[in-house]
């Protein structure tokens, strides 16, 4: 299984749940060869899948200091401390990847969205909802690049 796509976030905190909403939307038409996991805030529950993967795409709400709805893409370098802006919860994909032997670490990408609201509620803000098609396209584009690199 070369590609795992993780949906991260807390569905009870409006825009913080964007990663989970996105991975659920992708389930309707998943990228070829991808395993989709709704992880929520418990990244380490995906450890077995991440350990089997050669590529990981994580989707999450990320505080980037940008306007709400902005989408960012961040690579996790295999041997270095990753330069990923902070997640809104205890995002620990970098720690999970770093805990693996260097030779077995997957290449990991975080595709994040700058939230507008993080407060109790089940719905995404209008701004982050409007960014969802671009977010899904960014994930699909990353998955295509991965499959082309593997060819």
Account of the protein in words:
- The chain is of the alpha/beta class and 151 residues long.
- It has helices at residues 18-26, 47-52, 93-98, 126-150; strands spanning 3-8, 34-40, 55-61, 71-76, 107-113.
- Helices cover 30% and strands 22% of the residues.
- The chain has a five-stranded mixed sheet.
- Helix 1 (18-26) packs across helix 4 (126-150).
- The longest helix is centred in the C-terminal third of the chain and has 25 residues, at 126-150.
- The model has no long low-confidence stretch (mean pLDDT 86).
The general outline is: globular
Say how many strands there are.
5
Q: Which regions contain 5 or more consecutive residues with pLDDT less than 50?
A: none
Strand content: 15-25%
| First and last CA, distance | 14 Å
Just give the CATH class: Alpha Beta
Structural class: alpha/beta
Q: Major sheet, described briefly?
A: 5 strands, mixed
Rg over CA atoms: 14 Å
Task: Give the strand order, joined by hyphens, for the main sheet.
Answer: 2-1-3-5-4
CATH topology: Rossmann fold
Q: What is the H/E order?
A: EHEHEEHEH
The pLDDT mean sits at: 86
DSSP helical segment count: 4
- The CATH homologous superfamily name equals HybD-like
């Amino acid at each position: 299984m070369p590609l795992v796509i993780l949906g991260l976030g807390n569905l009870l905190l409006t825009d913080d749940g964007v990663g989970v909403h996105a991975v659920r939307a992708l389930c309707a038409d998943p990228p070829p060869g991808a395993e989709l996991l709704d992880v929520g805030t418990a990244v380490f529950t995906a450890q077995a899948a991440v350990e089997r993967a050669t590529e990981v795409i994580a989707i999450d709400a990320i505080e980037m200091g940008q306007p709400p709805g902005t989408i960012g893409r961040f690579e996790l370098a295999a041997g270095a401390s990753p330069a990923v802006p902070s997640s809104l919860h205890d995002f620990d994909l970098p720690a999970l990847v770093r805990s693996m032997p260097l030779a077995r670490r997957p290449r990991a990408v975080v595709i994040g969205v700058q939230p507008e609201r993080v407060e109790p509620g089940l719905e995404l803000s209008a701004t982050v909802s409007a960014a969802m098609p671009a977010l899904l396209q960014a994930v699909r584009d990353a998955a295509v690049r991965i499959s082309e690199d593997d060819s």
